[in-house]
Design a protein that fits this description.
Helix content: 40-55%
Strand order of the largest sheet: 4-3-5-2-1-6
Low-confidence stretches: none
Strand content: 5-15%
Structural class: alpha/beta
Order of helices and strands: EEHEHHHHHHHEHHHHHEHE
Radius of gyration: 19 Å
Shape: globular
Distance between the termini: 20 Å
Largest sheet: 6 strands, mixed
Number of strands: 6
């Protein structure tokens, strides 16, 4: 069969500092359509001496910390959500192949994460959540690190603390969304298109989809967005600016979730531009 064309991906070159930097937009789950990476991405990884990721989710110490944060300190999951949501959650767990008894000790936001990953994997045609995550951008980039330095923009504790601080109303609404994604999959949904958008370098479709998301009441959506997007954009941009101006000679390859890159005037890239750096989209020439 014919070889697949290399993918464009969604990546940017940052100039104007002491050190060169390339930022690759990531989606955390993926499919085979997202490979092979284009030469512009492969070259940028080959030239980097330091790889930067959002958060360390790999080490055993982080896994233990994360588990502690996801676990209820008192009561059970059933005590933490409304009586109306409980039977829906049980049905969703059964449909997703999750053991409800094993989830009883987890906080609502932690169970939401499990359900949404399972829903995404199923919609993308993966055999399991593990397979879908293994084909995500971070896992692919990690395979290219080899013996080079790795840094992180956030700690796992800081990232999970944001979700842990969600209001009870937002946690309930997000958990209901996760259940609905499993129990009532929409006939036409864009999630299956994400790998194709990423393959084609279609940042605009990601931004448009997020802007049109009305699945949460506006007040809860604002709480969610301020915590997980806007606030983190500023903090990550400040950390990247420090790397751009770091003494010595470094070349950075950064992997960040797409929602931190593609929204107009609300992104890490916008924050870097406001600091005076130049942001240029990188494209693989199409023959």
């Amino acid at each position: 069969c014919a070889e697949k064309a290399p993918v464009q991906g969604i990546c940017y070159r940052i100039t104007g500092g002491r050190n060169p930097m390339v930022i690759l937009g990531s989606i955390h789950v993926g499919s085979p359509e997202m490979e092979p990476y284009g030469q512009h991405i492969l070259d940028a990884m080959a030239q980097a001496d330091t790889f930067v990721f959002e958060c360390d989710n790999e080490s055993p110490e982080v896994a233990a910390q994360s588990l502690a944060m996801m676990t209820l300190t008192s009561g059970t999951l059933q005590d933490s959500i409304s009586p109306e949501l409980w039977p829906m959650l049980m049905d969703a767990c059964k449909e997703a192949g999750l053991n409800p008894d094993a989830l009883a000790a987890y906080k609502p936001w932690a169970v939401t994460s499990m359900l949404t990953t399972a829903a995404a994997a199923r919609e993308m045609g993966a055999r399991s959540s593990r397979q879908a995550v293994s084909q995500g951008v971070e896992k692919e980039v990690l395979a290219h690190v080899k013996d080079r330095d790795i840094r992180y923009l956030e700690t796992a504790v800081a990232q999970l603390s944001l979700m842990d601080s969600f209001s009870p109303a937002l946690q309930e609404a997000l958990l209901m969304q996760g259940c609905q994604a499993i129990l009532e999959p929409k006939e036409t949904t864009s999630l299956a298109q994400w790998p194709l958008w990423w393959r084609d370098g279609d940042a605009e479709s990601f931004a448009a989809e997020y802007a049109q998301d009305d699945s949460l009441p506006s007040q809860l959506m604002e709480e969610y967005h301020q915590a997980l997007v806007t606030g983190r954009n500023r903090r990550m941009a400040q950390e990247l600016a420090r790397m751009l101006e770091e003494d010595g000679s470094h070349s950075f390859f950064v992997t960040i979730g797409l929602m931190h890159l593609v929204l107009p005037q609300d992104s890490v890239l916008f924050e870097l531009e406001q600091m005076g750096y130049t942001v240029e989209r990188m494209w693989l020439p199409v023959p």
